[in-house]
User: Which sequence fits this backbone?
């Protein structure tokens, strides 16, 4: 419990879910062409990941008690789909301005592996509730950090750089991601996620 | 427009070629990257992952295609999800029962096949609109297209990172193993360069980026 | 309304058929999965005590040569011929859970054998923890006063073992989980043994 803060920091930096575990790549590549969209998507992910992590934790305990934890995949993905749907309606109704800034990205999140990945990882690492919450929130922030960094680089690159034709677009994006991932390795040892 | 799309898909080899090369899910579509990079530091992992994904794509596409006239449009997505999640759980059981070693090295990434965009993408883009026989070729081609790229990436990474191929030593012991290749950055670099090579060879450039 | 009804019926049938399918597959594979897990642990322990077995008869061999003692929520396996001990350990490494088995000589202090069954450490760095060549270094080390795994291990001291080069944190985690498991099992054994003889 006392290491919740450490887990939080660790999951943002040295165990970054996008750059170290390579999760959530599809939207990371697709929506990182400009910083504004990247921020919207990042916020949406932070929101959904934190919420579903917190919701899935008691559900997993329940499954465990009944003895059908092998159903966790099915149950997690349905919880995630339902949460996203509900969140979309809720934000649309009560916070229309917020909806304009990131609501569009919400439906895409159901198939973002970060969300399911976080739920599967807390099971694997047998976290308690506080640790799960810290890990979910940290992973969301970590993913947002990755997409904003990537979008920043890509935005500048689109204006200034002369990239070989075959490498342009997706190819160079992976090279940039590789360099970002190397940078994250520099934080190794900063915090433990146990 | 709809007619045109149908026309293009009427021949099974067209469908297969699309999945294998012209619209290869990884290299051109950039879908399903998470598993493509996370587990491809060894060829045997890549083969297992490819087989598992092919099975799930084929199973889900065929089921969706079979019941496509019964699926209510509103609950379409959740239907795909239930079907895919069910198949993935079956794959998990199968690996645990018959290939425990592989199951251990793939870890949570087996479960993450559910969110592999290719699976969902093929169900929504092809299976739900097409009869079973074309769906069969489409899903098979996409599965194999996915698998061979995975194996290609894994082969490069395994040789450079461990000096082995399918766990057989191929490089002399004096070769300094290149650890970075085994972890995330190596995967990104290899895939980036692979995309470059394939796009240059096929002259199929990224339109939005070059425009 | 009829469309709504159709939707509900569809979802119901879909859910039902998939639940049945999954339950079927689960019951078909459950036995094999349990056997696999048993095989991992038992074959490792049999290897530790140099017993020979095949994939078909490992379970019988194990039951013949090992005595399983459950006490104080821990399970300790005793090798009847040599009086050696073995138990499972687990803990969190840097990237994910690490688990395995460790075997001791009859003094319950000198390490006879260590095998890691599960780990997700960086291949080539922390992943070395599962390699037999590395684990062979533990053979003959003692737990007396706690095991120390460090880069500057003193070859003379019997309770010090070399850490993995470039993976200090995995080594630290491994040291922690071995010592923890040892203390827990040793205490449980002492309580059990003391109770049995007196």
Assistant:
């Amino acid at each position: 419990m006392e290491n919740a803060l450490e887990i939080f920091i660790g999951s943002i930096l040295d165990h970054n879910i996008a750059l170290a575990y390579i999760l959530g790549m599809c939207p990371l590549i697709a929506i990182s062409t400009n910083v504004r969209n990247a921020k919207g998507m990042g916020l949406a992910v932070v929101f959904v990941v934190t919420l579903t992590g917190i919701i899935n934790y008691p559900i997993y305990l329940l499954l465990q008690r009944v003895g059908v934890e092998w159903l966790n995949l099915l149950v997690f993905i349905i919880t995630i789909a339902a949460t996203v749907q509900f969140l979309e309606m809720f934000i649309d109704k009560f916070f229309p301005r917020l909806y304009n800034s990131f609501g569009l990205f919400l439906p895409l999140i159901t198939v973002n592996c970060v969300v399911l990945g976080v739920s599967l990882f807390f099971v694997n690492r047998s976290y308690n509730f506080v640790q799960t919450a810290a890990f979910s929130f940290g992973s969301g922030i970590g993913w947002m950090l990755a997409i904003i960094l990537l979008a920043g680089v890509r935005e500048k690159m689109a204006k200034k750089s002369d990239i070989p034709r075959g490498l342009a677009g997706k190819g160079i994006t992976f090279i940039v991601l590789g360099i970002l991932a190397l940078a994250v390795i520099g934080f190794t040892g900063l915090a433990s996620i146990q | 427009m709809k007619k045109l799309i149908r026309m293009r898909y009427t021949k099974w080899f067209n469908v297969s070629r699309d999945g294998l090369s012209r619209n290869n899910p990884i290299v051109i579509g950039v879908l399903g990257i998470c598993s493509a990079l996370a587990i491809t530091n060894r060829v045997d992992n890549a083969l297992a992952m490819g087989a598992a994904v092919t099975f799930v794509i084929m199973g889900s596409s065929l089921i969706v295609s079979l019941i496509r006239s019964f699926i209510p449009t509103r609950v379409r997505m959740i239907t795909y999800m239930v079907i895919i999640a069910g198949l993935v759980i079956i794959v998990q059981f199968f690996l645990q029962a018959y290939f425990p070693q592989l199951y251990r090295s793939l870890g949570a990434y087996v479960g993450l096949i559910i969110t592999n965009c290719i699976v969902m993408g093929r169900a929504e883009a092809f299976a739900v609109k097409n009869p079973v026989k074309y769906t069969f070729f489409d899903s098979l081609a996409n599965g194999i297209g996915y698998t061979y790229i995975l194996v290609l990436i894994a082969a490069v990474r395994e040789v450079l990172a461990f000096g082995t191929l399918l766990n057989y030593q191929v490089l002399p012991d004096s070769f300094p193993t290149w650890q970075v290749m085994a972890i995330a950055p190596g995967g990104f670099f290899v895939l980036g360069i692979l995309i470059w090579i394939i796009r240059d060879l096929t002259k199929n450039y990224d339109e939005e980026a070059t425009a | 309304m009829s469309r709504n009804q159709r939707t509900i019926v569809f979802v119901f049938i879909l859910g039902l058929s998939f639940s049945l399918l999954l339950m079927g597959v689960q019951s078909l594979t459950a036995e094999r999965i349990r056997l696999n897990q048993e095989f991992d642990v038992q074959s490792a322990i049999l290897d530790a005590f140099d017993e020979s077995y095949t994939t078909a008869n490992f379970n019988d061999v194990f039951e013949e040569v090992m005595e399983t003692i459950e006490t104080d929520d821990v399970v300790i396996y005793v090798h009847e011929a040599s009086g050696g001990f073995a138990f499972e350990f687990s803990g969190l490494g840097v990237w994910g859970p690490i688990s395995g088995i460790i075997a001791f000589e009859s003094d319950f202090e000198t390490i006879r054998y260590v095998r890691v069954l599960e780990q997700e450490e960086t291949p080539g760095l922390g992943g070395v923890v599962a390699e037999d060549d590395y684990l062979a270094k533990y053979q003959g080390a003692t737990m007396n006063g706690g095991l120390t795994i460090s880069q500057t291990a003193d070859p003379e001291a019997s309770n010090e073992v070399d850490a993995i080069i470039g993976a200090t944190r995995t080594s630290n985690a491994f040291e922690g989980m071995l010592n923890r498991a040892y203390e827990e099992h040793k205490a449980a054994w002492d309580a059990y043994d003391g109770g049995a003889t007196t």
About this structure: DSSP finds nine helices and no strands in chain A.
